[in-house]
Amino acid sequence: MAERDLSELSDTERKALHEAELGAEWVHRAHGALIEFHHDVGHGMDHFERAETLFREAGRTELADELREELLPRGVDGNDRWTYELLEDFRNGFLGEIDAFESAAHQRVAGGKRHVAEQAQKRDWNERARTEPDGSTGEGT
């Protein structure tokens, strides 16, 4: 595709691409939260594994057995999936589809360029900075 001059984009195209970028960024933030969830659950389960040993040492074998047989091998959802499986499903499914859509939209509308709204804002602010504080260009009237 030929290089597209971003100044040729309509305001609506620019806004649509910006909304797609923001949507993808929020989904990526959710991915980060899911990674945090995965780590937090893992750390919690590590504590339960240590508790199993300590309950057994304390003679509380019924509690140790319950941890070993019921909670430690169990997944976090109704399908017995562990958090790493949820994370992989999200990464390889929904997140990948979001990224593919955003990339395709940018390719079709802006020749693959991203952050077109920010680029327009930068251009506008640089232009404004070249004018005098009162808004004039500094030329005689």
Binned, the helix content reads: over 70%
* Radius of gyration based on Cα positions: 27 Å
The mean pLDDT is: 90
Number of helices: 4
Distance between the termini: 45 Å
**Shape call:** elongated
Quaternary status: single chain
How much β-strand is present in the residues? under 5%
* Domain count: 1
Overall structural class, as computed from helix and strand content, comes to: mainly alpha
Q: What's the total number of strands?
A: 0
Describe this structure in words.
- Helices cover 71% and strands 0% of the residues.
- It has helices at 11-57, 61-71, 83-110, 116-129.
- The chain starts with 10 loop residues before the first helix and ends in a 12-residue tail after the last helix.
- The relative contact order is 0.15.
Outline of this structure?
This protein has 141 residues and is mostly helical.
